[in-house]
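Hi R.,

Here's the chain you asked about this morning:
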Amino acid sequence: MAVLIAAAMLLVGQVGDIDGEGSESSLSPREYLYATYPVLAPRLDCMIRGESSWIPSAIGYRGWYVGLAQFDYPTWLETPTGKGGASRYDPYASIDAMAWGVVNLGFRRWPVTSRRC
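And here is the predicted structure, written out as tokens:
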């Protein structure tokens, strides 16, 4: 599965560690986004600003949506990051899952912010 995800990211011009392991501890979440997903980064940055204002502990509508990318639990579990047991509040995991999500599930998972960005 990881090989397929890495291949999909390469197809859209992405580089970096799709598993979310690596240099994130030395980079802020925003720096990590741009270093790991340079092609998607400007749009994802805009979307994250709209979803959570870059606040990892953000909680959305009725507590259903949480973290930087405001994942609900069912959608989170569709991502390799979520299936791997990462927390929706982990900013690096949220970035990895959002990048995977827009490539594999489409921007429709973020209907408002993806249209604004």
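One quick note: The two ends are 29 Å apart (CA to CA).

Cheers,
M.
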